Amino acid sequence: MSPISPGNKSDLKYSKILIKLSGEALAGTREFGLDADTLQFIANEIQSLKSLGVDVAIVVGGGNIFRGIQGSASGMDRTTGDHMGMLATTINALALQDALERNDIDTRVQSAIPMEKVVEPYIRRRAVRHLEKGRVVIFASGTGNPYFSTDTAAALRAMEVEADVLVKATKVDFIYDKDPKKYPDAKKYERLSYIDVLNKGLGVMDSTATSLCMDNKLPIVVMNLQEKGALARLVKGEKVGTIVSV
After folding, report:
1. Would the pTM count as exceeding 0.85?
2. What is the model's pLDDT at position 7?
3. What is the mean pLDDT of residues 216-224?
4. How many domains are there within the chain?
5. Could you tell me if 68 and 81 are in contact, meaning their C-beta atoms sit under 8 angstroms apart?
6. What is the dihedral of CA 151, 82, 106, 54, to 10 degrees?
7. Mean pLDDT of 198-214
8. Is 65 part of a structural domain of the chain?
9. By residue range, what is the domain housing residue 226?
């Protein structure tokens, strides 16, 4: 696989990032499942980051296939449902790995639930080494524990690999006080504190993930995944999306 020539990291605001991708984002315009065009678009955006020399880690959700909390609502045991959701994230991780490698980007998938015949087990030191070698690392299966969301997994992995920022890639361009698609008068926020997010109940990430980032002073950027070139502009220091920090 041909390596991508890296840029100069000293020119970047963020040289190591962790991107949280929801399962719904991978579905594109579909109600469920995976969308090939969306996977290719994401691969192209990641390729632009790698060309700049950015170290990229990714945590994927599984909501396009199965959500444990939805299974629980229908009477399923919550732990069973959450384990099913974790397996769904692994399916998404493999699909994203395939899209990235078709763009000649070296990629490794690590799972919090051991399944060595399919993906690597999550080992922090190995993940860090992959990043040092320029590989994209995709973390699957959340934290490996029920009752913890993939948002919390993203915050945890970002801390463990010492990322400069946690990017929550969504379908909206900023954080709003209510759904901008339903309410034209929705207020847009360009900057928020962690406490603001928690007190206002803005639902950017779950409270556990937000609190973890707050305790470790890890900035969160919420931005529109579907905006071409936005990730590259972000790492260069341009204003993109809403930043949540101290």
Report:
1. yes
2. 55
3. 96
4. 1
5. yes
6. 0
7. 92
8. yes
9. 9-245
